[in-house]
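Bench notes, bay 3.
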Amino acid sequence: MPDYGFARTYGVELLCTRPPTISKRQLLAALRSRCPGATPLDRDAESGVLAFVHEDHPIQLSDARIAAQTFIAVADKPLAPQPLAESVQQSWTFPGAAAALHRSHATVVVTDLMSSALEYKARLHLFQRALLGVLEVIPCEAIHWRPSLRLVDPLAFAEAGSGPPSGLFFAGALNVRLFNIQGREEETVMDTLGLAALGLPDLQCHFHGLEVNEVAGLLYNTAWYVFENGDVIEDGQTVDGVDGHRWRCQHEVALVPPEREVLDINPGPRYAAGPREPGAA
């Protein structure tokens, strides 16, 4: 399939009550506490350029050797809340998402640069550690995690940073979404968003007659398996369903935007909804 969703840059937006004043020296110290190889891109710890090179994450190009980077910038325009409305609706683990958005009037962008060539686990780990450092210096009401289109509680994310890797992964990089089909209220589509930005297939299940919390658990568990092992579930292979049966998988194009490759999980004739691509029976 085409390379639908692989992120050339990977980033989040910090939603703040007002534009913060950022000390580059303090920011560098916080970054180095999490990412020891961080160095100012311009070699100046006092300048206003908030770009940092991770020299311990080198990337060899065909004609040059570079390093992964983290870039931080305060947006020059006030926060427009309307484009984030859909992300609020799908932020199931952050009950205060709408209120946090209402309190926010400024945005700080945190993104990686020159990092897409890194192995995806190393890339995400570096970004997560850098973000934890940034949060020590820049207070915010919420994190808008753009690759997974969800609002994240910054306190919950910081707490996850002291736990196992799976907790940090689920705290931001992955979103499990739920959609009801207009005109077919008995049908539900649930999918993941976030794996595609790392070059992996997201997951999808189109069904009726099943408990959404059980399907969500299946998607979380399978997403972690895919993240840990890569795109190793082949078309026609199966995973343990929530009904005690094996559910067949097939790579398809996502039913719900953004357009990307997904691994469709077919719950079988009793629970499956909607047409499926050839070979997905």
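Next record in the batch:
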Amino acid sequence: MTVAILLGIAGGIGVAVLISGLLPQRPALATALAQLHRPRSSRLDGPQDASLLVRVVGQPLARTGLAARLASRVGADLRVTGRRPDEVLAKQALCGLVGLLWAPATVSLMALGGVSTSLILPLWCSLALGLAGAFVPLLSLRVAAAERRRAFRHAFSCYLDLVAVRLAGGAGVESALSSSAQAGQGWAFAEIRQALAEARLMGEPPWTGLARLGTELGVSELGELAASVTLAGDEGARVRGSIAAKARSIRTRGLADAESAAQSASERMSLPIVLLMLGFVVFLGYPAVMQVLTGL
């Protein structure tokens, strides 16, 4: 019976994948036109070779329109981590399949050992584990995106300090932005240089390029800086004051985040000690309680 259930599940998944490959979803015209100007997620870390799992599972799933839905939900996370939608879809399919088959595999091993169990509980466990496994890659993506944004904010505050120093030395706004971006290394400074170059080629102010980069990466500080500098106008002193204030606010926020993370880690460290003390109290008090109960 268990073997028949496993074969039915595998056959259903195979038929669903076959139908999705034969009848791919036709993208809308607006989506197709938007893909011509979409930022490439692999620009952060360079081109990457697709693995066998991505080629076999992820790319067929991406052609069904799931990639567009995933990009609409976590597009900024994909952009900041440099991951492609087909990679996330392949991991989701693999984790979901593992969670779906975990309970039937356990029941089969128990049946081989002579232990008979009902099929209702494993069925519900398979559904729950399958759904949970499908969401694990999304959770991992969000955690990685949060780490990348934290690193970007740290580099961006250093960049703003360099811009303020060059403005104080008499440099122009665009010159200070460009020269400060060339002074740093790493993916954050590379993104800033790329955003400034795109704005210059499109004939836009540099703040517009930084605001667009902030929208793509999900870093609100870039848009806030663009808005404050736009209000400040073209006067050097006011622009320098806005940049220095934004750099201080980013550093203050980073310090507050670091302190909250340290406090959370301290609280997590105290939990095992509390559980150990609770077990020790139960170990010492159980004989006395049982003695009192049996004496009654």
